[in-house]
Design a protein that fits this description.
This protein is an alpha+beta fold. The protein folds into three domains: about 60 residues, Beta Barrel (OB fold (Dihydrolipoamide Acetyltransferase, E2P)), CATH 2.40.50.140; about 80 residues, 5' to 3' exonuclease, C-terminal subdomain (DNA polymerase, domain 1); about 45 residues, Helicase, Ruva Protein, domain 3, CATH 1.10.8. The protein contains nine helices and five strands. A five-stranded antiparallel beta sheet has the order 3-2-1-4-5, with helices on both faces. Helix 7 packs across helix 9 and helix 8 packs across helix 9.
């Protein structure tokens, strides 16, 4: 199966791209989310999902693997096809969609054109666990060095700040990248 395509962007619209890779131009169906991420770039790498139907073979392109994974989860739901999944991802970012699914927010999904109450409920029920597992594994990979976090946590709790407040603020501060314990503590203190 195809993993990604990399090449020069020949044509672009909020729904489709034409990518020149080698001497062949490929038409990719994209979401508005992907379109907004590429901006005015002349070249790009797009992660692919290949759909084979009786009457067509279609390539769907995504700016990142996270969006492609959500797309694949959506099309696994009965009654949600590739174009409906693309419409959903054009209406909500992958992060917003994950939050809506994990919180069981049927109303947010119903706001998308073509998604009724039953479809929204089916999406939530069918893929909530899969989205939850993906989110947990993402968090494991995104965590900074635990010893730095533990040291900063100990220092701030010793200063008399509540543990839960400290943990929330540390999570915010540590998203900024590699930092020393001193920088983490200073950043968290600014938030308190």
């Amino acid at each position: 199966m195809y993993e990604f395509i990399e090449g020069e962007i020949i044509e672009r619209s909020p729904a489709q791209l034409v990518i020149m890779a080698g001497s062949i131009a490929y038409q990719l169906n994209i979401s508005v989310h992907t379109y907004s991420k590429i901006g005015d770039a002349g070249k790009g790498r797009f992660y692919l999902h290949h759909v084979v139907r009786e009457d067509a073979q279609l390539l769907f392109g995504f700016a990142d693997k996270e969006e492609r994974e959500i797309f694949r989860l959506l099309i696994s739901v009965s009654g949600v096809g590739a174009n409906t999944a693309r419409l959903i991802l054009s209406s909500m970012s992958p992060a917003e969609l994950k939050d809506s699914i994990l919180s069981g927010n049927v109303a947010a999904l119903q706001n998308i054109k073509g998604i009724g109450a039953k479809s929204a409920q089916r999406i939530i029920v069918d893929i909530r666990d899969k989205v939850g597992k993906a989110s947990e594994s993402d968090e494991l990979f995104q965590q900074q060095d635990n010893t730095l976090k533990d040291e900063a946590l100990s220092a701030l709790v010793a200063l008399g700040f509540p543990r839960k407040t400290v943990e929330k603020n540390l999570a915010k501060v540590m998203k900024d990248g590699n930092m020393s314990v001193e920088e983490i503590v200073k950043g968290a203190l600014k938030l308190m």
